[in-house]
Amino acid sequence: MIAQLIGEIFCTTFMNNSFLEPQMNTICHKAYILQTLNYSLTDSLIAITIIHSLPKTYSTLKTILLSTPEDKLSFNMIINHILVEEKSQQSQSTFQTTFIAHLRKRKRKAQDKKKGGQEKGADRKPKSGKCAYCKKKGYYKAKCRNIKHDLEEKGEGGSKKKPAKALHAKIARVESDNGNEHIYLFMAQIL
């Protein structure tokens, strides 16, 4: 039984398609069972095992955590860093999915125009109103291209949003104070 538990602890590889916290808890539970059988594992050994069990998408965090001195590693510190990274990757994935969906919608509209189809409402007659900004007839200030163009040139916004750039780099900084070591992760984006 002890050999089987040790094998399961040290040969585990976490999967990306489910949350990491329950997977880490499984390793901790097995380590606890070993402890009740008078075969305890050190906190840093469990932490290193968890680091080595991380999926490939966590390679940067893995490198950073493995560069931490073994006597400074603790289970709680590792868990906190992994959960922060997991949340970061999930929010980044959500943003990318939203951005892709938005691009597909724009692409579809462009294809419809190329095929000769008209967007909804394109067959209606122009409005008889007059723009308060450029004084042209047929639309109102809210639909005025000139005001949008002028605002974009001034850097005051407009309707066009620039997509966020892809993640470019992750930087780590390790600081020590009062015997505690802190690892700070910084994510830089291309501007």
Question: In brief, what are we looking at here?
Answer:
The chain is mainly α and 191 residues long. Helices cover 50% and strands 11% of the residues. The chain has a two-stranded antiparallel ribbon with strand order 1-2.
Q: What do you see in this structure?
A:
With 191 residues, the protein is mainly alpha-helical. Helices cover 50% and strands 11% of the residues. Among the domains are: 2-91; 127-160, no CATH class. A two-stranded antiparallel sheet has the order 1-2. α3 (43-53) packs parallel to α5 (75-114).
By DSSP (H or I, 4+ residues per run), the number of helices equals: 6
Please count the beta strands (DSSP E, at least 2 residues each). 2
**Strand order, largest beta sheet:** 1-2
Could you say which overall geometry the principal axes of the C-alpha atoms support?
elongated
State Rg.
27 Å
Structural class: mainly alpha
The percent range for strand residues is 5-15%
Distance between the termini: 55 Å
Task: Please outline the major beta sheet.
Answer: 2 strands, antiparallel
Keyword list:
6 helices; about 190 residues; elongated; mainly alpha; 2 strands; two-stranded antiparallel ribbon
SSE topology:
Elements (H helix, E strand, L loop, with lengths): L1 H9 L9 H17 L6 H11 L5 H8 L8 H40 L30 H10 L12 E11 L2 E10 L2
Antiparallel strand pairs: 1-2
Helix pairs in contact: 1-2, 3-5
